[in-house]
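Structure tokens please, single chain.
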Amino acid sequence: MHSKRSVKIGNKYIGDDEPVFIIAEIGINHNGSVDIAKRMIEAAHSAGCDAVKFQKRTPELCVPKDQWDIERDTPWGRMTYIKYRHKIEFDKKQFSQIVDFCRRKKITWFASCWDENAVDFIEEFNPAVYKIASACLTDENLLLKHKTLQKPVIMSTGMSTIEEIENAVDIFGTENLLLAHSTSSYPCKTEELNLKMIQTLKEKYPSIPIGYSGHETGLAPTGAAVALGANFVERHITLDRAMWGTDQAASVEIVGLIKLVSNIRDIEQSLGDGVKKVYESELPSIRKLRKVQSNLTIHKAI
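Here you go.
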């Protein structure tokens, strides 16, 4: 029996009383390389993540026209910004390779689509879930586009007021929706993470799974998010934080990812059910340290 706060993604449920769903955000940290993307997928799978996430944009729709011809230095030399944006977008052939690799690894994949054309592109590959980025939370047409697909959608809430979140939820509806608390600065200062918003959102939306999308440099806040009740967590990952790219510095390297997943599993196991009990493992301490013993109901660890 699953709680009322649960949504099924693939063969797993996300919600209260379910294992924390861990998402490795590859985003654009692959720098347009299928090989790098595959290495990151392999690492996420080996670390024990439940899913990997990419981003998809139509550059002409997402980049303001006055920025198209601005030149910048890139790993491929100096080029215009619009050309660079195309350089890091996977085409259908490349995305097919990525999707096939994820299927072979039996790891869920999905993407955040920043425009309606991008949704059409990704839908051809039939993902189990979509992501709406914080920057797109106020794009009502994009919200409605996702709603027509009748698939689960994770909506990030960074750079948004509570009124904007309420409006987005009203437009999309609560069915098939998951909300991720987030602060959209890269990397994010610890004093701006505001993790207690996880509890605020859980109280405000009792039927919606609530998670955390973190952009901090350390691991501890993500563990704290789990302790505060996050049903899912998402962190950017990278092969090397020194790699070129805007999101690399706010990403977790693979060694850190392995530790993060392990920490999350330890945290959720250690939380228990909140009911005080005496465990069988405590009996030697009782016999050794207590002068007066009481009638006890002993609980064995499962």
